[in-house]
Amino acid sequence: MQLAGVWRNLWCKNLPTGEVAVAPVEDSLEGTLICDKAVGGIGITRDLVQIVARKRKVQKLDSADRSLRTRVIKALNTDGWASIVGEFAIGVNSKARFTTHFLETEKIKGSAHVAFGHNVDFPGGKNPSATHMDFFISKPSVEIRLGDGSSELVLKNGKLRI
Predict the structure, then answer these.
(1) What is the mean pLDDT of residues 26-48?
(2) Which domain covers residue 71, as residue numbers?
(3) Confidence band (pLDDT; 50, 70, 90) for 11?
(4) pTM
């Protein structure tokens, strides 16, 4: 999955601390996201959620869990902005645990999450959606593209490299 220009503004504001979060450039999301453990606002998931995004927006969503799929689709259809990328974050808290409380789970060191919807409370955020739904990835590989066009691998299979 690619998020071009994602590092324009860093943000941190909720407790427990332990994430580096940004409001991505809204039209930069391209690729397939596999959420493997939890969805914000829903909780722990037993099945994967696969999201295909093109030009900032969710194009396709699938999960073997029909109830989960229905709930996520409903949330992503809340308004015209709900299915547009709103956040990308990497967890950096070595004390955070996988719990039913998503605000702690999303901070697990080496994890990442992508959210769709509202982000106007982030520096540079432009998405005024009435919803914000996070999708947790337990062992991601993340490569960032820098302003000069170069890139750097910051996470590989959930291990921080910086």
Answers:
(1) 90
(2) 2-160
(3) very low
(4) 0.86
